[in-house]
Each structure stands twice: as structure tokens, then as C-alpha cells.
Here is the input.
Amino acid sequence: MAWSDFKQNAATIRFVQKALLAGRLGHAYLITGESHQKLGLARQIAAALNCAGATGDACGQCNSCRKILTDHHPDVRLFRPESKSRRIDIDTVRELERVSFLKASEGRTKVGILVDADRLTQPAQDAFLKTLEEPPKNTLFLLITSEPEQLKYTILSRCLRINLFQEEPAEPSERQKNILSVLRGWKSAPNQSSLFQTYRLADAFQKALDEAKEEAETKVQADYEGKGYENLDAAQREKIEAEKDAAVKAEYRRQRDHLVRVLEDHLRDMSISAPSNRKLVRAFDAVERMHARFERNMNEGLLLEVTLMQLAEALESQGRS
Here is the structure.
């Protein structure tokens, strides 16, 4: 990856490059936004800080750059949510603190990257805050998240924010278009039973979720291929597999959120045109509750079934109006 890969965020990248060249980076940055390139930017910054060329840029070719961009550099560490709990616990933060206070072994600057930082538990956030208040020398922390509101204000206030916009226009995906087609078809097919159309919507949504999960697995597998992980010992390979599993879950969660927003946006639009329809309001609330409960790893299939039944009732009432 190179700076030119961040075309959609050119102004932001110029700001980062100037800070690097001037040697005036802060000690902690929050990289946020809907862009898929947040982790790529974190690696690029880490490489620029430790490039053998020492120019404040990343050549991408030297041994240091290659190690960082393939997650093999001993002074650049990635920390992700645990595969089962999907949380970053206090033990992970303590390990981050431990390595942060060690002397750099190969590079000039130690970099700790927290992927999905919004998954930090409250005790972990409290512990990490102490490190941010008294950061070790020659160490940079990069927090990556699409949900900064999940972090404590005291953490946010000690990080400089880098907001990356989506690198592609917000054109609906084929999965989103299929769900919208079923939703919009409700009014155009009033003679079909509500139950039949509910099953159509449930089938379309479940198919979209299955495709999203498969795409997440393929995407993460591609990110990890060709990085020499097969040469690691058993314990290290096990850790990498756990990281991959966590990365798949994070990517799937991101894509699932986009699908749920299709339902939320459609109901919101309908509510504007029919503000007195209480069933629409209740359906919107039900979808929002489903969205929140997904985050707590509750039964996805059951939540979807119950919520779509309420959604069907609202759409049916609107179709008769």
C-alpha cells in the first residue's frame, strides 16, 4: 500500500504526511470513518516512521517496510478482539503496555495498533487511559474504529482524530438492492399474503447475511495470504488463526450493519410520509432493538424472524393505506 492508494482522502493524507516529515506526530491517533482502509493507513504510518530511508515516508521496499506491511515487525504490534468474546480485555491492554515500554529492537518508533478499539472492555479502557496520560517515549498508539462513540470521552480527548471517508460512492450493493426490491414490492403486490411476503423478505435477508459472511471470510483470507505465517511455530499460528477469526467476525459485523441500515432507512422514509402510523414507529423501534441485540451476540435467526414479523405488519398496514 502507498499514500496514492488513499485518493478519496487526499487532504487528510497530506496532513498526516506533513506531520511525519516535520516529526510532529502526536502520541495517539484515532483512525475512524466508514473506509475499509483504516488498518492500511495505520500500517502505512508505522512504515513511514520506521522506513530505512528515514525520510518520513515509506518506501515499501526496504526490509523494515516489508515487515510492517506484512505484520512481521517486532516493534509494530497489532491487537484485536478475542475470537470468542469479541472484546479486547484488560490482559490484552497490559500486554500492549508491556511492549510499549520496551526499547525498540529494530525500528526507531514502537507502534501499537488497536483494531476495533470500540471493543475495549470498560476495565481495559480504564487501564489504557493511564498509558495515554503518561505515554512512553518513541511510541505511537493507533486506535482503529468505526464506532468511536463506544469509547470513553477521556480516551477520545487524548487522541488526534483521522477521519477516512468511504473510498467508493455509497452505491447500494447487490445484496442491499435485493432487500430494497422486496421491501418496495410490498405495496405493489397487495394481493399476496403478508406471511408469504414476510418469508420472501426473511429469505432475501438471510441470503444476504450468508453472502456477507462468505465474503468476509474470503476478504480476510486474502489479506493473510502470502505473508509467511505457515513458517511460524504452532503457538504463533494458533494466535494468527484467532486473529483471523476475529477479523472475519469484525468484517461480517460491518457488512451486517449496512444491511440492517437498509431496513432502518426504508422505515424512516415511510414514517416521514405516514407519521401517524404507529405500527411503522413500532417496527422501526424493533429493527433498532434487533441491531443492538446483534451486538450482544444474541440468536441472529430468532431475532430476525421476530423483527421481520413486526416489520411485515407495519408494511401491510401501510400497503392498505
In short: The two ends are 54 Å apart (CA to CA). The chain has a mean pLDDT of 81. The chain has two domains: 3-163, 174-320.
